[in-house]
Structures are given as structure tokens and as C-alpha cells.
């Protein structure tokens, strides 16, 4: 499956402003991480962080473990208010996401998976749907990082450019895509995720249960919304449809989605 060849190159430089680049490539990552923690040991998005993943050979990357760091969202924890509260970010990122990362570290310690890149662990432990123990924590660690970077302050609304053109081509209109994405997120029974994904030169909406993501389904993920109750209960209680509309209307970073689309197209064409 070609998705096994996917890796992510992300370069984040966060000082007064932040830019994110994400590319899917057929290589393995190495990571240099410089970060700072506050007095409680929490990585603070207010402080400078530099994370670089660069393509290198498989042999050179086997000792990499920094994929298992709890990477902060690319904005301050109160930056999405009033649409997503600081309290939600403190619990969702600071407690839930942290637990997935911490548990993964313990789970792979001393196993053949220790030191392997996160996407490798995800594909290996998906095990064709017969999940191995580390899958849920590995996939949830990846999914949450992808989710934080799917949002930005003052986001949402309608995309533009090539992304809009492809949405109109594959869903007939942006409004139809909006309906389909919202419906997938609203109807995912119990915990899970809804995604915009790219495969075979087409965009599609998929929903997945628990920790499953498009990486194990042969697609390139472009956008996601977390529909686990912990994602919205503090702000919306049981009103999941209101959370989804708020995400689409006020939080989506279409710039991130467009960058992911470009990376997916490049990786897709080079693996053809
Ligand atoms: Fe979550």
C-alpha cells in the first residue's frame, strides 16, 4: 500500500508568527527538536519552538523517537476563543492528547516499534484491521496533531483557488461538500473522526471510528474534525452539530488543507 511510504515533513518556526508546511514524501524522517517548558513541564505554545523533520535514509532514522513528543497547537490555547475555549484546549490537548503520547511511549518501550516514526507504527499496528495494542495511542497521537493544525484563529468559511475548484468538481459545489462533511461528522456513531481525503486524483469525505485514520485506508488526509465527546462537551455539551458548524464556519485553516493537497498530489504522482 503506497500510504506506507508516506512521511511528513513539517517545519515550524514559531515566534511572533507561525507557518507550517506539510509534505508527504517517500522517505523516513529525522527530527531536531528545540523547545522550552514552563514551570509545570508543559510545552508552551507561547514559547519558541523549532521542530524540523527532514528526509533521510531509513538507516539514519531508526533511532528517532521525537515523533512521540507532545507538540503544541500552532497557536495559543486561548486563540480559538470564542469558538473553542481555552479550557477545551487545556483538557483536550493538555490531558487527552498528552495521555496518548505518554501511553505510546510506554507501550513501544523495548519493542521492535521503539524509535520508529509514528506513521510506520500506525500502519504496522493497524495490521489490516486486526489492531495491535499500540495502534490506538499511535493513531490518536497523530490524529490530534493533525487536528490542531487543521484549525487557525479567524479560520473557516469558503476556501479558494485550486482547492475550491476540486471541491466543486468532486462534490458539485462547496455547499454540497459542506453538507456531506457535516453529515459524516454528525453521524459517526460514538467516538471517531470525519475527514476530507485525497486518493486517485479525487477528493472524498470519510468518517472513521475511534482512532482509525485515512493513512491506513490508502488515502491522503487533508482535513479532520475530532468528534469524540471530549472535543466539544465543555463548549457545546451534547450539541455536536453546533460544534461541527462552528468548526467549519470559524476554525478551519484552508491554507493548511491546500498545502496538504499539494503535498498529496506530489507524492501521489511520484509513486504512480
Ligand atoms: Fe480528541
Automatic annotation (TrEMBL):
Keyword Oxidoreductase: yes
Protein name in the entry: superoxide dismutase
Similarity-based family: Belongs to the iron/manganese superoxide dismutase family.
Top-level lineage group: Eukaryota
Annotated Manganese/iron superoxide dismutase C-terminal domain residues: 159-260
Gene3D superfamilies according to UniProt: Fe,Mn superoxide dismutase (SOD) domain, Iron/manganese superoxide dismutase, C-terminal domain
Alphabetized PANTHER family for the sequence: SUPEROXIDE DISMUTASE (PTHR42769), SUPEROXIDE DISMUTASE [FE] 1, CHLOROPLASTIC (PTHR42769:SF8)
Transmembrane segments: none
Underlying gene: LOC104722469
E.C. numbers: 1.15.1.1
InterPro entries attached to this UniProt entry: Mn/Fe_SOD, Mn/Fe_SOD_BS, Mn/Fe_SOD_C, Mn/Fe_SOD_N, Mn/Fe_SOD_N_sf, SOD_C_sf
Species per Swiss-Prot/TrEMBL record: Camelina sativa (False flax)
Record-linked Pfam families: Sod_Fe_C, Sod_Fe_N
SUPFAM superfamilies found in the cross-reference section: Fe,Mn superoxide dismutase (SOD), C-terminal domain, Fe,Mn superoxide dismutase (SOD), N-terminal domain
Cofactor(s) annotated in UniProt: Fe cation
Domain Manganese/iron superoxide dismutase N-terminal residues, every copy: 68-152
NAD keyword on record: no
Keywords: Metal-binding, Oxidoreductase
Amino acid at each position: 500500500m503506497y500510504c506506507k511510504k508516506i512521511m511528513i515533513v513539517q517545519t515550524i518556526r514559531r515566534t511572533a508568527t507561525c507557518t507550517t508546511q506539510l509534505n508527504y514524501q517517500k522517505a523516513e524522517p529525522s527530527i531536531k527538536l528545540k523547545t522550552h517548558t514552563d514551570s509545570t513541564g508543559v510545552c508552551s505554545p507561547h514559547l519558541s519552538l523549532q521542530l524540523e523533520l527532514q528526509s533521510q535514509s531509513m538507516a539514519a532514522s531508526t533511532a528517532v523517537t521525537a515523533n512521540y513528543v507532545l507538540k503544541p497547537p500552532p497557536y495559543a490555547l486561548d486563540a480559538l476563543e470564542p469558538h473553542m475555549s481555552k479550557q477545551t484546549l487545556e483538557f483536550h490537548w493538555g490531558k487527552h492528547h498528552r495521555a496518548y503520547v505518554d501511553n505510546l511511549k510506554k507501550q513501544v518501550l523495548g519493542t521492535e516499534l521503539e524509535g520508529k516514526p509514528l506513521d510506520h507504527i500506525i500502519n504496522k499496528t493497524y495490521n489490516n484491521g486486526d489492531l495491535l495494542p499500540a495502534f490506538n495511542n499511535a493513531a490518536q497521537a497523530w490524529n490530534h496533531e493533525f487536528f490542531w493544525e487543521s484549525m487557525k484563529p479567524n479560520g473557516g468559511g469558503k476556501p479558494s483557488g485550486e482547492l475550491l475548484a476540486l471541491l466543486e468538481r468532486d462534490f458539485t459545489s462547496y455547499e454540497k461538500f459542506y453538507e456531506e462533511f457535516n453529515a459524516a461528522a454528525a453521524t459517526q456513531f460514538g467516538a471517531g473522526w470525519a475527514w476530507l481525503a485525497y486518493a486517485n486524483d479525487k477528493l472524498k469525505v470519510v468518517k472513521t471510528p475511534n482512532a482509525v485514520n485515512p493513512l491506513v485506508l490508502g488515502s491522503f488526509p487533508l482535513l479532520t474534525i475530532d468528534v469524540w465527546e471530549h472535543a466539544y462537551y465543555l463548549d457545546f455539551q451534547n450539541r455536536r452539530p453546533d460544534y461541527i458548524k462552528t468548526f467549519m464556519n470559524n476554525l478551519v485553516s484552508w491554507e493548511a488543507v491546500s498545502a496538504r493537497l499539494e503535498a498529496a498530489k506530489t507524492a501521489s504522482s511520484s509513486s504512480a
